[in-house]
Amino acid sequence: MVVRSVLSIPAPVLGTRAAPVGRVGEQEIALARDLVDTMRASPACVGLAAPQIGVSLRAFVVDVTGHKKARSCHGLVVMFDPEVMAASDPESAREGCMSVPDLTGDVERAAKVLLGGIGIDGRRLELEADAFEARALQHEIDHLDGLVFLDRVPGPANVYPRKVYR
Fold first, then answer.
1. What are the two backbone dihedrals, phi and then psi, of residue 133, each rounded to the nearest 5 degrees?
2. Which H or E run contains 90?
3. Rounded CA gap, 29 and 38, in Å?
4. Among 41, 52, 117, 123, which has the minimal tally of Cβ within 10 Å of its Cβ?
5. 53 and 38 in contact (C-beta within 8 Å)?
6. What is the layout of strands, in order, in the sheet containing 124-130?
7. Diameter of the chain by CA atoms?
């Protein structure tokens, strides 16, 4: 098990578009394992993108299993080179991020998405997701595009101090 440090803003890699993976080999599988291990070791974390651990590649993991706001749930999702193929109208909801540890904010995101990419097995993967899972997937794709949720908050009135969970 390898738990990596999660970078916080203003780490430069968090503001840079990540490079495509292209194909899945041993290095990409090892990266996915590190992402999963780090996500699972982090309380309340439901997703993690490669740039958050300092790797500028288009890879992320998401798992909303058991989350009270989840409707769709694909279990553990590992995706490389994801793209949004279709999206519904946006809805606003509160988000937080391990890379922005002290703040949360109201962000508009599509309530339903269809994503395409490469799965851990190297094959084409397509997912339809809604509600919280759709939000989590879009949040991780933003990291791959060099964005954090604060880049999508409409203004300072929509940013809040993070609650401390024990």
1. -65, -40
2. strand 90-97
3. 14
4. 123
5. yes
6. 47-49, 59-62, 77-87, 112-118, 124-130
7. 45
Token readout for 135 is 């939000």
Evaluate whether 27 touches 55 at the Cβ level (below 8 Å): no
Which residue in the list 28, 95, 133, 140 is annotated as catalytic? 140
Residue type, 132: F
- Please report, for residues 8, 12, 130, the alpha-carbon distance to residue 126 in angstroms, rounded to integers and kept in the order given: 30, 30, 14
Nearest-angstrom CA–CA distance, 83 and 80: 9
Phi then psi dihedrals of residue 19, to 5 deg? -80, 150
Q: Which domains does the chain have, with CATH numbers?
A: 12-161 (3.90.45.10)
SS3 153: coil
pLDDT per residue as tens digits for the range 73-132: 999 999 999 999 999 999 999 999 999 999 999 999 999 999 999 999 999 999 999 999
Distance CA 33, CA 2 (A): 8
Q: Is 28 a catalytic residue?
A: no
On the 0-12 / 13-18 / 19+ scale of CB atoms within 10 A, 163 is exposed
Q: How many whole angstroms separate alpha carbon 155 and alpha carbon 116?
A: 31
pTM of the entire predicted model: 0.95
